[in-house]
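Q: I'm building a small set of examples for a reading group on sequence design. Run inverse folding on the following structure and report the sequence directly after it, with nothing in between.
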């Protein structure tokens, strides 16, 4: 891309009418996403490929898209909901993520972090959206059919992008291949979501009866409850409110489970390869936490006091500019959704000179765009959070036509603030207590898929760090540990046994 014209065209066999225009040209991106946005809706072909998502925000255009967006903005900014989801994130960190990392650290076990983070985000989003915790994040890490179902659905969508439509439609008609797996996956996903919707309706009915008698618990502020309250009596969603809720909920799962979990994987991988960045994040976090002293007069907030940290999270998190910059940098190098597809309604000529029409599928490669020297400089392959920080100490704003990573999955549905907050919370909880390193020899490469998974997963080892307490190093007994020197600014590591 860099050596060429930033854009090239791929044509399929003549009978397929398949034409792909792949581009990383910022001028093309600005033209399509901003200047001539009205000519580039998702369209019928997009909806065909993403058929399994129904009429969620990913698939719809025009008024329905505006309604989805209005609802998401309204509910995600609900003050009670904001408090609710932050509490649920920390609750899952404290009761799910930390006990497992403690266990594997003390036992010297390997852990597959891509699976672990996927379970964490699935449980968290399920709790926040549906008010139901499936508890997939537990010590034995059991298999759950819905995990495979979501993965199979994702693979089917990707497959529909890279083969002629006549091929996958023929497979769908015969009920074979990826289309068969996609159909079976949809049944599993629907059973799970519709079951939660039915349970929530029954809960709301009983709660309504209880309130009439002035007894009974108050309903929560999960998104399902808020959506049901908002759409009750609304004519904007048609005659099937459960179908609308199903499509909406599935969009949240697609936006959150895979994209946030892979973003976490690539972030910790980059930290393992760049210890100087990890040291700066820890230093910034130490300063912020020292300033956020507990109201009881505690001398210092200790890493494993998650109840205190969760209460102080907003105060601490808002000050972590370098951490925020590091997250932006990780998304630049490894965007969770590596490409974005568009197609014009009317024939058009792009700034690059390429002519496109309704038969042209335009694909932006965010993965390539994040590594262009013309946009990011000669050090574009380096993990360098400093490039995002202005002299004023604030985060640099980069126009969306030059940086599309934040416009991919997490931001589309969950909102940039919520997705980055989840990532920040997990990072804060982990880096102060654990030393995460990839298993030596395990290949870490991107997979070719709708979401930028690690092709072979992320096998890692987690070791407990020493906690500085009143000038002493608290050493766990019974096994050897790798520790970092407690001196500020010192990067030496050493081994001590119990």
């Amino acid at each position: 891309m860099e050596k060429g014209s930033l854009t090239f065209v791929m044509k399929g066999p003549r009978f397929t009418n398949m034409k792909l225009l792949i581009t990383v040209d910022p001028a093309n991106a600005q033209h399509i996403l901003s200047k001539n946005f009205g000519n580039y809706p998702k369209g019928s072909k997009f909806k065909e490929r993403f058929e399994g998502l129904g009429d969620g925000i990913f698939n719809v255009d025009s008024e329905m898209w505006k309604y989805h967006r209005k609802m998401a903005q309204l509910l995600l900014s609900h003050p009670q909901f904001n408090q609710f989801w932050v509490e649920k994130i920390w609750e899952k960190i404290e009761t799910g993520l930390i006990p497992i990392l403690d266990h594997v650290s003390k036992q010297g076990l390997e852990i597959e972090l891509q699976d672990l983070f996927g379970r964490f985000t699935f449980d968290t989003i399920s709790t926040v959206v549906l008010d139901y915790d499936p508890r997939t994040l537990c010590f034995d890490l059991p298999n759950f059919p819905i995990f495979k179902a979501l993965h199979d659905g994702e693979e089917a969508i990707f497959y529909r992008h890279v083969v002629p439509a006549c091929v996958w439609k023929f497979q769908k008609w015969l009920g074979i291949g990826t289309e068969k797996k996609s159909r079976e996956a949809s049944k599993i996903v629907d059973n799970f979501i519709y079951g939660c919707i039915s349970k929530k309706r029954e809960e709301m009915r009983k709660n309504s009866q209880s309130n009439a008698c002035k007894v009974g618990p108050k309903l929560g502020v999960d998104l399902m409850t808020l959506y049901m309250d908002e759409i009750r009596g609304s004519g904007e969603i048609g005659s099937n409110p459960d179908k609308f809720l199903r499509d909406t909920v599935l969009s949240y799962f697609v936006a959150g489970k895979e994209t946030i979990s892979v973003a976490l994987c690539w972030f910790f991988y980059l930290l393992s390869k760049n210890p100087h960045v990890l040291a700066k994040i820890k230093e910034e976090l130490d300063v912020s936490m020292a300033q956020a002293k507990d109201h009881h007069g505690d001398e210092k907030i200790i890493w494993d006091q998650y109840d205190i940290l969760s209460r102080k999270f907003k105060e601490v998190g808002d000050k972590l500019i370098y951490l925020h910059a590091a997250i932006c940098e990780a998304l630049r190098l490894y965007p969770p959704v590596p490409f974005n597809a568009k197609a014009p309604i009317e024939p058009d000529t792009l700034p690059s000179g390429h002519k496109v029409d309704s038969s042209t599928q335009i694909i932006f490669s965010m993965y390539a765009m994040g590594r262009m020297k013309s946009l990011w400089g000669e050090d574009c392959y380096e993990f360098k959070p400093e490039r995002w920080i202005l002299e004023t100490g604030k985060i640099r704003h980069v126009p969306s036509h030059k940086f599309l990573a934040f416009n991919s999955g997490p931001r589309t549905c969950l909102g940039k603030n919520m997705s980055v907050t989840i990532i920040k919370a997990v990072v804060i909880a982990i880096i102060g207590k654990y030393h995460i390193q990839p298993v030596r020899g395990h290949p870490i490469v991107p997979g070719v898929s709708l979401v930028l998974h690690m092709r072979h997963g992320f096998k890692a080892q987690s070791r407990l760090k020493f906690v500085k307490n009143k000038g002493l190093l608290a050493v766990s007994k019974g096994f050897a540990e790798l520790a970092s020197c407690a001196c500020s600014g010192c990067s030496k590591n050493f081994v001590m046994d119990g």
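Residues 466-498 form one domain.
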